[in-house]
Design a protein that fits this description.
The structure is a single chain. The chain has about 70 residues and is mainly beta. The chain has one domain. Helix content is about 0%, strand content about 30%. It contains no helices and 6 strands. The strands form 2 sheets. Strands 1-2-6-5 form a 4-stranded mixed beta sheet, with no helix packed on it. A two-stranded antiparallel ribbon has the order 3-4. Strand 5 and strand 6 form a beta hairpin. The radius of gyration is 11 Å and the shape is elongated. The N terminus is likely disordered.
Length: about 70
């Protein structure tokens, strides 16, 4: 999981091994936490957290394995 710096909005790039995606992610500061929400990035390749607006997207070529 890599955080990218974007002054407008926070973005997190995910690899297949980072799934299931959830927010707040482990790299967020404790003061910035909100209730945990799981995000389905597989259908479109991206999702946005409804609480904080962080954008999560799959890396190009990410391999997603079914459980």
């Amino acid at each position: 999981m890599n955080d990218t710096t974007d002054p407008e909005a926070s973005q997190v790039e995910l690899d297949g091994k980072d799934l299931p995606a959830f927010c707040p992610n482990p790299r967020m500061a404790l003061w910035n936490h909100h209730p945990r929400v799981f995000l389905d990035v597989v259908p479109t390749g991206q999702a946005m957290c409804p609480y904080c607006g962080t954008k999560y997207r799959l890396k190009a070529g990410a391999v997603v394995k079914a459980h």
